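Tutorial handout. Part one gives the primary structure; part two gives the three-dimensional structure as tokens.
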Amino acid sequence: MKILITGATGLVGTELVSLLHHHKHDIHYLSTSKDKLHNEGHLKGFYWNPQKGEIDQSAFFGVETIVHLAGASISKRWTKKYKQEVIESRVISADLIFNTLKNHSHKVKQFVSASAIGIYPDSLKVVYTEENKSIDDGFLGHVVEKWEKSADKFKLLNIKVCKLRTGLVLSEKGGAMAEMVKPIKWGIGAPFGNGKQYQSWIHIHDLVEMYRAAIEDNWEGTFNAVAPNPVTNKELTVAIAHALKKPLFMPNIPEFLMQLVLGEMHQLLFSSQNVSARKAQGKGFKFEYEQLEKALNNLLPSK
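Part two.
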């Protein structure tokens, strides 16, 4: 199968390209940097610039599935200007693809979009399934709502749409976990607030395998891309310290302090989403890493 990927050089994109290549898929990818365009057998790069409305239409030749991972990181300080960039990087890029397909002949049958569990409201009690229609009233909820609407537009072109609402991605190569590990390694790690907030996580291996399943089995609809066993922030902090064989002796970090340091972005650390993986499991998806301990032992081998 020929697959077009945006955001192919990011944390998830890099792993996904490698996995799909291993399974003999032909990969086209879009990049805003002409220096990153390569043509190596099963892997071909094409230029685009969503801000200018520019895209190499030959990127779509023979493509059956598009995977949309592109989007500015949410881990930079949320200034008014950067908030707009976070939204536009997801929506404008999807709109450019949509309009290109709308105005040209193509063979695309499926659009698979990254999404996030940040759409769900902060709650210590609710277990969120995909059927829950509540939307968080903060910035993240606003981002994901617009993100998903831009993906749903592809239904107008009779293209199947699949959205993977992703939790905290655990990877040794970067992302949120790398930032959580640093203070614990330095001996200054501690839970945030009371540590009771739920963090629904997923190992990078399982995440890219879920994308592969969504592509190869032609999934349609919304799916939570999280492991079946979410943990609290305290449990996650303790588990990382245990895997690293490091002590935890610092007091819990109060919310007001992180709000002073990070501003509105502190919500990433204190918001609670207990998210269900049952729908993906119902499609027959098997997680390699269902338990946090196994995931961390794989990613943080003791030295």
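Part three, for discussion. Residues 183 and 189 are 5 Å apart (CA to CA). The chain has a mean pLDDT of 96.
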